[in-house]
Amino acid sequence: MRLIPALMPPRHSQPIPEEFLEGYWSNLDVRVHSCAYDELTVVGKMNQDWLDRGGCSRPSYVIDRLGGFLSLVMPEADPKRLVEMSPLCSFSFLEDDFLDGDMFVDEQAPNLDPKIHDTAILMRKYRNILNQVKSKLFVELLDTDDAQNIYVQAYEEWAKASTETENLIVEFESLEAYLNQRLDNFAASCGWNVMPLMHDFKLTEKNISDLNCIDQLSYRMMILINDFYSVENDWISHAALGKAGLPFSAVYVIMRIKNVSITQAKSIIQEEFLEMERSWVELRDKLMERCDSASAEEFAKYMTCLQYFIGGILVFSMHSPRYHISPTGSSFYPRPEDTIVTLPRRKHQQYINRLKRRRLDGDEENPTSKCHLKDYMRPTAGNGYPSTNGPNDQHHHTPDGNYLSRCVNPVKSFRDDRIPWLSKYQQVSDEAILEPYDYIQSLPSKKIRHAAIDALDIWYNAPPTSIAIIKNIIDMLHSSSLIIDDIEDSSDLRRGQPSTHMVFGTPQSINAANYLFVKCVDEVQKLSFSAMNIFVDELRNLHIGQGSDLRWTFHGECPSEVEYIQMIDGKTGGLFRMASRLMRDQATSNKELQVEGLLTLMGRFFQIRDDYQNVRSVDYAKAKGSLSDLDEGKYSFMIIHALKCNTKNKQLKSLLAMRSQKPLSIEQKELIMKIMEQSKSMEYTFSVLEDLQAEIQKSLEDLESKVPQCQNGDNRNWMIRAIMARLRLADVDLGSLKRQ
């Protein structure tokens, strides 16, 4: 079998045995990493951890006698990094099965927990196990090497993109339109961000831009391979869960557009792939001709890795048990001759060509409601930051916790009367009032408070409805505080985008923020009488903390460290504590476990880290503006220390006093930074963060020792550990495959 050779000679790989190349329909050479058996070992341990914690058995995510996914798609990767990252990479298939619903399709899931008959409870159980396993993998990666934070963040972005499209009903007008959309959630950007770390590429910004054309073509080819082999699984879970429309797959796009069977569509996909492959080889050769001599070796290394990535996905898909289930294993298994109309469905399901759908051009035709079942199937991103819907989803998650399609005209008269002041009307919808809230919810966010709630649920096992309500309350309070905070601080940016009042104006933004308190009260009343007492208590602390911060800024008074910590305990710690107290109020297990001390410490760490990031982090500067705390007139932890250490030096005090007159210049900010460096305020703040982290670890271990023994004997709360591991590091500025 003569295959097109790669540009670079192999260093870490070996040929794939001929028995695994039977039926291989690409012309690109393909290899397997020499550490493939090491990958099998570590992936096996990850899978055993899932099972020991109470997870169900799934088809293997590795290929016996050959290797796992990474060994095939990155056969030239650094051996050490490949072994370290393999467990999380294979775990992504497990999480994907959970998100797609494959795990809960009866015919494919004979080993689900027989003691639990309620699917929603079972989903919640598996979601918690997934979060624990994933968080443990994140912690182990970050403890090994801080540089692997890029993989953790890239993984989170993939998980978020996957959940955003899980219920989209889109009729694509072409295969190209589908591929463009699919690039966002196919883990393409995840692989693209991680490849340089795995192979130690030394590419310039110009190199990355020049190679983007072959990047995008490569990942399009990989999408076609994935869809080709997952066509049966995609339909079985889609039909068994009663989803509307068609699976998100190139095969089903071709079947609908061309009105052909599965076999015919797959044949068209193969032809399209081979045509892309010819273009890929031509493009590779042109890029090598055009690049300068200094870049030639890096270009050759990079495109060699892309070639092996494409071929490796094909070999993995050909042989992975994940993609090959028995035709007799499900009543929804599609036959090769099936067309869109004849695909097996539940009796109540019917495919209509002019489906209620959302088109890519933004035109909406009767958008359908989201499946409530999916609420339980949305795991956190494992730090554990949760994955949330993006701003382009036509179904908004409203503050009362319901997924609703927003009405075009929600107010209707009860009678057709020409005299409006004598007519009766329904109550005016709050849709327009909540637009500022919808906006700030759409901005990028780690949702760390959601993550903390999910982490606490490992101990408290609160009812799913209570968890949803508590998350809504915390979301609304946090959003309200951000809207008001930006107005009070005259901050133009929030998370790299215009602040809410810069979009909707100050009066409307204030009204929306205040209205959210009303919505919170509505939500709290659904929990318990004691929950209302908790809500009022911590809401009081939030406002006292915020008020102290504002008073210091207005009067130019520098607080002591003790006063500053007390302010944090109210302003930042209040939301963390409210979440923990409400969770304990609703707990069905470990109700006596008091975690408020731990959450207060985490609030202190979070705020002082935020102060530190404001000065040190490039990403923070992009999101909030360079040294925004100085412009806002605030007294950060570092400034308090610097003022305490420079009582005789009036420069810093004078510079800070000038903030009330006009924004500080770059030169003035640089002088403040120089004074803080002379005072060693940054080093001092870093040592405080280390002290807090050690105390948090001690408090966490104490709590872990008090809970009953887990099924697998591991009582560690890996989700809280992952939160702290991520907060220890600055965020990585991830690139985007599609934006180059």
Q: Describe the sheet with the most strands.
A: 2 strands, antiparallel
Outline the low-pLDDT stretches.
352-379, 381-416, 618-625
Radius of gyration: 27 Å
The secondary structure category is mainly alpha
* CATH architecture call of the largest domain: Orthogonal Bundle
Count of β-strands: 8
Taking all residues together, what is the mean pLDDT?
A: 84
Beta-strand content estimate? under 5%
Just give the CATH class of the largest domain.
Mainly Alpha
Helix count? 28
The CATH H-level superfamily of the largest domain is Farnesyl Diphosphate Synthase
CATH fold field value of the largest domain: Farnesyl Diphosphate Synthase
- Span of the ends, CA to CA: 36 Å
Strand order of the largest sheet: 1-2
Determine the fraction of residues in helical runs and give it as a percent range: 55-70%
> Any idea what the shape is?
globular
Provide the number of structural domains.
2
InterPro entries: Isoprenoid_synthase_dom_sf (IPR008949), Polyprenyl_synt (IPR000092), Polyprenyl_synt_CS (IPR033749)
GO molecular function: metal ion binding; prenyltransferase activity
Keywords: Magnesium, Metal-binding, Transferase
Region (Disordered): 361-399
Keywords:
Polyprenyl_synt_CS, single chain, Farnesyl Diphosphate Synthase, magnesium, Isoprenoid_synthase_dom_sf, two-stranded antiparallel ribbon, 740 residues, globular, Polyprenyl_synt, prenyltransferase activity, mainly alpha
